[in-house]
From TrEMBL:
Matches recorded under InterPro entries: KR_dom, NAD(P)-bd_dom_sf, Peroxisomal_Beta-Oxidation, Sc_DH/Rdtase_CS, SDR_fam
Protein name: Short-chain dehydrogenase/reductase SDR
Domain of life: Bacteria
Family as reported in the entry's similarity comment: Belongs to the short-chain dehydrogenases/reductases (SDR) family.
Lineage per the UniProt record: Bacteria, Pseudomonadati, Pseudomonadota, Betaproteobacteria, Burkholderiales
Ranges where the Ketoreductase domain occurs: 8-204
Length: 304
C-alpha cells in the first residue's frame, strides 16, 4: 500500500476499537505496517481478550495491509517494552507511536478512592511514558520518529467527576512537550491530539436528564474515525515541521489549542505583602481570571 506512511512501522495502543481502531486502519491505509495493541478488557479493567486487536488486524489484512496483534499492557514497564519489541521482532523497526490506550474510573473528587486514582494514572500517564520511553532509543539511534499522544479537553480545560482522568491527560500534554524538547536534536517529534468522538470511553457519560441527552446526541455525531487522519498526518514525515503542538479534532473541525503563557503581570518595586496583593495585584489581574468552566462550556458550538 502507498501513502504518507509507506515503508514506516507504527504502533497504536488501545487499538481494538473506537479511536484507536480508526487510527490503526488509517495508518495501514497510508502504507504503514501496524502493531495493533489492545489488552481486550472493559473500561473498568475486567476481562482480557485477544479478539479486539486480532479483529482489527484481520480488517487491515483484508484491505491489503500488514499488521500484527499485541496484547501486552501499557501500564507496566515490561509490558510497554514488549509492545515496542513486537514491532522490532515482526517488522525490524519502529517509526511512530500513537499512545491511545485509556480507561475510566469517573467519580467526584471527594468520593474518589486510591484504586480509582491509580488505575487511571497507570494506564494514561504512566502508559504514555512507558511506551514512549520504550521506543525512544530506537528513535534516537535512527535519528527519526514521531509520537502522537491522546490528551483531552477534560485536562486542558476541565470536567466534572474526572480528577484522575483530567490530571493524567494534562500530564500527557506536559510529557509531550518534554519529549519534544529532549528528542528534537534527534529529529524526533511529539504532538498531542484532544479527540472529540463517540466511543467506548464516552459511552459511559450519563444521559438521563434532557440536557445530558442533548449532549450525548451531539457527541454521537462525532465519529471516532474522524480523528484518524490527523493522527496519521502527525505520525508521517509530512508533519516534519510540526512539533510540541496540541490539536483538538471534533468531527470535521481541527483546532490548535493554546498552551499556558503569561496573560497579565503586576510589579511592586518594594516587594509584595499579603495585604498589597489583596489590594493591588488581584484587582489588577481579576479581569483576566479564567472562569470555572468545563470543556462543553468553552467549546459549546455544534460540531461541524
Amino acid at each position: 500500500m502507498s501513502g504518507v506512511m509507506a515503508g514506516k512501522v507504527a504502533l497504536v495502543t488501545g487499538a481494538g476499537g473506537g479511536i484507536g481502531r480508526g487510527v490503526a486502519l488509517e495508518l495501514a491505509k497510508a502504507g504503514a505496517k501496524v502493531v495493533v495493541n489492545d489488552i481486550g478488557v472493559s473500561l473498568t479493567g475486567e476481562g482480557g481478550d485477544a479478539g479486539p486487536a486480532q479483529r482489527v488486524v484481520d480488517e487491515i489484512v483484508a484491505a491489503g495491509g500488514i499488521a500484527v496483534a499485541n496484547t501486552d499492557s501499557v501500564s507496566s514497564w515490561q509490558g510497554a517494552n514488549a509492545i515496542v519489541q513486537c514491532a522490532i521482532d515482526n517488522f525490524g523497526r519502529i517509526d511512530a507511536v500513537v499512545n491511545n490506550a485509556g480507561n475510566l474510573r469517573d467519580r467526584m473528587f471527594f468520593k474518589m478512592n486510591e484504586e480509582e486514582w491509580r488505575s487511571v494514572i497507570d494506564v494514561h500517564l504512566n502508559g504514555t511514558f512507558f511506551v514512549s520511553r520504550a521506543a525512544a532509543n530506537h528513535f534516537k539511534d535512527q535519528e527519526s520518529g514521531a509520537y502522537v499522544h491522546m490528551t483531552s479537553t477534560s485536562g486542558l480545560i476541565g470536567n466534572l467527576g474526572q480528577a484522575n482522568y483530567s490530571a493524567a491527560k494534562l500530564g500527557i500534554a506536559a510529557l509531550s512537550k518534554s519529549i519534544a524538547l529532549d528528542m528534537a536534536r534527534f529529529n524526533v517529534r511529539s504532538n498531542c491530539i484532544a479527540p472529540f468522538a463517540w466511543s467506548r470511553m464516552t459511552s459511559s457519560i450519563p444521559s438521563e436528564t434532557p440536557e445530558e441527552k442533548a449532549r450525548v446526541a451531539k457527541l454521537q455525531k462525532m465519529e471516532a474515525n474522524k480523528v484518524a487522519p490527523m493522527a496519521a498526518f502527525l505520525a508521517s514525515d509530512a508533519a516534519h515541521e510540526v512539533n510540541a503542538q496540541i490539536f483538538a479534532v471534533r468531527a470535521n473541525e481541527i483546532m490548535l489549542m493554546s498552551q499556558p503563557r503569561p496573560v497579565r503581570s503586576v510589579h511592586m518595586s518594594e516587594g509584595w505583602t499579603p495585604e498589597s496583593i489583596a489590594e493591588i495585584a488581584i484587582p489588577a489581574m481579576r479581569n483576566s481570571f479564567f472562569k470555572l468552566e468545563r470543556s462543553p462550556d468553552v467549546i459549546s458550538w455544534d460540531p461541524i
